TrEMBL record, chain A:
Subcellular location: Cytoplasm; Nucleus
Quaternary structure and interacting proteins, as annotated: The 26S proteasome consists of a 20S proteasome core and two 19S regulatory subunits.
Keyword Isomerase tagged: no
Protein name per Swiss-Prot or TrEMBL: Proteasome subunit alpha type
Record GO biological process: ubiquitin-dependent protein catabolic process
Species, as recorded: Extremus antarcticus
Annotated CDD domains: proteasome_alpha_type_1
Protein family per UniProt: Belongs to the peptidase T1A family.
UniProtKB/TrEMBL annotation, chain B:
Keyword Nuclease: no
Alphabetic keyword roster: Cytoplasm, Hydrolase, Nucleus, Proteasome
Subcellular location: Cytoplasm; Nucleus
Species the sequence originates in: Extremus antarcticus
Gene Ontology cellular-component annotations: cytoplasm; nucleus; proteasome core complex, beta-subunit complex
Function: Non-catalytic component of the proteasome.
Name listed for the protein in its UniProt record: Proteasome subunit beta
Coiled coil: none
């Protein structure tokens, strides 16, 4: 009786002009755990909350290094992210092989955008159920791109996708002006604070559930997990009150490298 | 098994006429020639010379396209600028050069198309705009792959290429690629007859990389012009009009109708033993 008749496939518009399959796919992104990304003039960072199915199980991977100069963070269906990341790895390698140059982030983002868009236009296909943040450094400097299942891609200074990511985005918006001139350590701390803000009351950032990816002008993209990030977690939240008010978060630390 | 249609109940000749074999290859009585590949170049360009100097590279090639030993076309420009940072010089088959030129043009269109997507905000800033521009090194890698692919298909592009310009670090770049997909790099390079006649002279000017870093632009251009003259003296497929290009930080400076100056044929009457001459 209340069945929606216009969501059987991704090629049928509803009378209101909506394509429900695409909207459902975007809903899948919102179910995924939160990931954030920020760029400064010199660095690009990704930070993510990893989830585990049960207490004794391992955590689902959230950040995937693609090429030496960039990586992605995913929110949504991990299996769709696998398809896209394999495609991105292949394209990145092809660029290095045929032209001897690392692929531009704007270029690779446009390619997966096109690929995702065709999925929304063919009968029998479905949109990808995953959103991505693509961050790294190319010939034009540090970049961050956001990718949506609809095929929409946007370049941003900072961004967050996934469950409760609105809280992270609020933090990022409040500190937007600072990011440009942030050093590496400061940028990581901003990312962790944004991540922390989107967490529910009973949860906390730990070395087990937090994942970080950093790329810089003189630094390849590297994934940091486990004990490697213990230092950052400690220094970021030791002055918790100050960190959460946001505005003066950057001061008092001169670990800027 | 007999695959011929006669053995498979084909309509009888006396009713339907003889079988029409024209669609078959000639080995089966058809009209089709076997597919063939380039066995030798037809219309050819001769040597290309290039020399690295302290801030850039100079490259030259004459404007002649020969049909065998006939000097058939005298206005063929064999230096093709790719962008502000790279020039390609073509020796060998001219039709294959034209194919590669079209390939490079479409590559250039593609490059400018993709590089304008995404971040237009950096468009205004100097330096950042140039960064994604394809360097001579990128171009050389690409062309070498194209040449190697074609030779692997047993259908080579019959050219010897010199790719000159600036690399990713804006340092002078000079490398060659040929019909086999072979690549080579040196402070001075010459293709064709030039490899025998001009390369020794160029090597006297720049014996090694260190020497090319010391070489001035004027000296480099002078050396190349001298070599073009020597080639005109001794290479029977050469011509006294040529193109010369200099690539450096300021971009490409291409001149396509230079003429050889101060020729001296005083050595000529001592040459004996060619053509109808007997003694």
């Amino acid at each position: 009786m209340f069945r929606n008749n216009y969501d059987n496939d991704s090629v049928t518009f509803s009378p209101q002009g909506r394509i429900f399959q695409v909207e459902y796919a975007q809903e899948a992104v919102k179910q995924g755990s939160v990931v954030v990304g920020i760029v400064s003039k010199t660095h690009a960072v990704l930070a993510a909350i990893k989830r585990n199915a049960e207490e004794l199980s391992s955590y689902q991977r959230k950040i995937i290094p693609i090429d030496t100069h960039y990586g992605i963070a995913l929110a949504g269906l991990a299996s769709d992210a696998r398809v896209l990341s394999n495609f991105m790895k292949q394209q990145s390698l092809a660029s290095r092989l045929t032209y001897a140059r690392p692929i531009l982030l704007s270029d690779i983002t446009a390619r997966i955008g096109d690929r995702a868009q065709t999925n929304t236009q063919h009968y029998g296909k479905r949109p990808y159920g995953v959103g991505l943040l693509i961050a790294g450094v190319d010939a034009r400097g540090p970049h961050l791109f956001e990718f949506q299942p609809s095929g929409v891609t946007v370049e941003c200074v900072a961004g967050g996708i996934g469950a409760r990511s609105q809280m992270a985005r609020t933090y990022l918006e409040r500190n937007l002006d600072e990011f440009e001139n942030c050093g590496r350590e400061e940028l990581v701390k901003h990312a962790l604070r944004a991540l922390k803000d989107s967490l529910s009351q009973d949860k906390e950032l730990t070395v087990e559930n937090t994942s970080l990816g950093v790329a810089g002008m003189e630094e390849n993209f590297k994934l940091y997990e486990g004990e490697e990030i213990a230092g950052w977690l400690e220094t970021t939240f030791e002055n918790k009150a100050e960190g959460e008010t946001g505005a003066e978060g950057g001061e008092g630390m001169e670990v800027d490298t | 098994m007999n695959h011929f249609p006669e053995a498979w109940g084909r309509p009888r000749d006396e009713i339907y006429g003889a079988y029409n074999p024209t669609y078959l290859p000639s080995s089966l009585g058809g009209a089709h020639q076997p597919t063939t590949r380039t066995q030798s170049p037809i219309v050819t360009g001769t040597s290309v010379l290039a020399l690295k100097f302290s801030t850039g590279v100079v490259i030259a090639a004459d404007n002649l396209a020969s049909y065998g030993s006939l000097a058939r076309f005298t206005d063929v420009h064999r230096l093709k600028p790719f962008n502000k940072r790279a020039v390609v010089g073509f020796g060998g088959d001219v039709s294959d050069m034209q194919y590669l030129d079209r390939l490079l043009n479409s590559l250039d269109v593609e490059e400018n198309y993709t590089s304008s997507t995404g971040d237009s905000k950096q468009g205004g800033e100097e330096g950042l705009v140039d960064a994604p521009l394809m360097s001579a090194k990128n171009l050389h890698t690409y062309l070498a792959k194209v040449m190697y692919k074609r030779r692997t298909d047993f259908n080579p592009l019959w050219n010897a290429l010199l790719i000159v310009g600036l690399d990713d670090q804006s340092q002078p770049f000079l490398a060659s690629a040929d019909l086999l997909g072979t690549t080579f790099s040196a402070p001075s390079l010459a293709t064709g007859f030039g490899a025998h006649l001009a390369q020794p002279i160029l090597r006297r000017v720049v014996p090694n990389e260190a020497a090319s870093r010391e070489l001035s632009r004027e000296k480099a251009v002078e050396a190349i012009k001298e070599c073009m003259k020597v080639l005109f003296y001794r290479d029977a497929r050469s011509m006294n009009e040529y193109s010369i290009a200099v690539v450096d930080e300021n971009g490409v400076e291409l001149s396509e109708n230079e003429k050889l100056e101060n020729q001296s044929w005083a050595f000529a009457d001592r040459i004996k033993g060619y053509g109808t001459q007997v003694v």
